[in-house]
Design a protein that fits this description.
The complex is a heterodimer of chains A (249) and B (378). Chain A is an alpha/beta fold. Chain A contains six helices and eleven strands. In chain A, helix 2 links the parallel strand 4 and strand 5. By secondary structure, chain B is α+β, with helices and mostly antiparallel strands. Chain B is 51% helix and 15% strand. Chain B has a four-stranded mixed beta sheet with strand order 1-4-5-8. In chain B, helix 9 runs antiparallel to helix 10. Chain B is globular, with a radius of gyration of 21 Å. Classes of the chains: A alpha/beta (249), B alpha+beta (378).
Chain lengths: 249, 378
Amino acid sequence: MKILVPVKRVVDYNVKVRVKTDGTGVETAGVKMSMNPFDEIAVEEAVRLKEKGIATEIVAVSLGVAQCAETIRTALAMGADRGILVETDAELQPLAVAKLLAAIAKTEQPGLIILGKQAIDDDMSATGQMLAALLGWPQGTFASKVAIEGETITVTREVDGGLETVALALPAVVTTDLRLNEPRYASLPNIMKARKKPIVTMSPAELGVDPAPRLTVVSVAEPPKRKAGAKVASVAELVAKLRNEAKVI
Amino acid sequence: MILTQEQAIIRDMARNFANERLKPFAAEWDRAARFPAEAVGEMGQLGLLGMLVPEAYDGAATDHVAYALALEEIAAGDGACSTIMSVHNSVGCMPLLTFGTEQQKQRFLRPLARGEMLCAFCLTEPEAGSDAAAIRARARRAGDNFILTGTKQFVTSGASAKLALVFAITDPGAGKKGISAFIVPTDRPGWRVAKIERKAGQRASDTAQIVFDEIELAPDLLLGREGEGYRIALANLEGGRIGIAAQAIGMARAAFEAATLYAKERKSFGTAIANHQAVAFRLADMATRIEAARQLMLHAASLRDAGLPCIKEASMAKLFASEMAERVCSDAIQIHGGYGYLQDFPVERIWRDVRVCQIYEGTSDIQRLVISRQVLAG
């Protein structure tokens, strides 16, 4: 079975994100970028499925600027077999990403697409769901456990109030939650071997997709600074304040 | 210097590993003077202990730039681990790769590169340091075999290593040409760890005094030719010095990062101390010095990768980085004020750890000697 793993290049999780002075987005110039951590979990899961002999080939896909090749290279170093880069300078919103991935899925015919439940930059949590809808495939989102048997994938989902287990017919789309696994460090020999693995570059036009944004960003602003709290002397005062000032009880 | 994709990925991997697997434990390893066996094992699995070894011998086959970058990251996590890694790669694997027979490479280099065996380097003696030709350890002939006797000082990983490269005199009348190198498995009868030194810093790395009580060695444990030992000992000076520069830079950076974090949090006179220009300018100077040292190191490493002479540049990088690092670590303590002097914060440990970078792998004075000869020759 072939597995397709979309990987997104995002601002590194250690970086303190800053809003651009003109309010059009967040600053990415000169900022350290790396693979979306949820996508790392997706790559790890795919590699584990390959190590178990369930998957035969892992294809890592990234969409965006030329530097996304680095993100693909990281996936190759972790154990993916080859990469596809859809190169564009256009701003990519979830629907465009889902359409591009659907187009790739139609030619690649993977048995499973596994990707992060969301990216840590815009936290949209939409691509996986839209992709499943466009392909007409079942989806198991927020996976904390997956098991494949025959033509069925069983996905344990982290939902409000507990865990839900669903069985999906393959091919399917799975999005990963934090507890699915702990991604490995790519070993140096594998990093060096990744250099020889192929990455194919294509454009949105070649895939027949117009990636133009459908949503307009009105403004991007820092969250308001947290104000200092107030100290109360007694429980009675706290209750009084909650009732009279905050009006929550 | 602009890094290649592989170099950047290697640096990032080493950084993530150091942040998660070394940095949180460094203070405890230091306090207990405990060898970080588990972490070193993981480093081996990641290929960090055979970085410059070709794939054919199970190494990662990276270039020297990537090696320096990875070593900087490991040093930023824990100075002691960086010394273990540096010694193993630079004076463990490299002499075996350059001078070993095919049979020796199969038998010893492969497990070293996989990180399954740690290697020690036994050159220095109680009365022979910078003056390496003054060693007295003796390997005398007994039939085909050699019998090794003597004492070695400041042996990194002396108690943990499974293998050691040992330099001893085979021909007492021949001076430098009478020194030979031997591959010594440390489980041989007669290998005795006489003392584990109590050090100011890098306490997790076991620096030992080793005594050889009549260790019998078959001729297939001779590394290189008889009498070639001195040349072998000095063969990878450039690589070793680039490595120490990387370690000093990594430790300095860790101290700088701790100081920056502290300066943003600690308040005095109603504002974070980072907003006081005296502190901000100190941080600016620290960052500049670290970057200057790093570029010097990367330049030397890239010369080495290109196969160009780099003994002057490697010595400059080692000298500048190690002296810079002591100053930067001291500045980091200063920014912490009294707290910097306490073991509650990492900077006093890093300051202790980094001091030896001016001593091992050629003291600052030796580096100046090498550099001055180079500049005066031109």
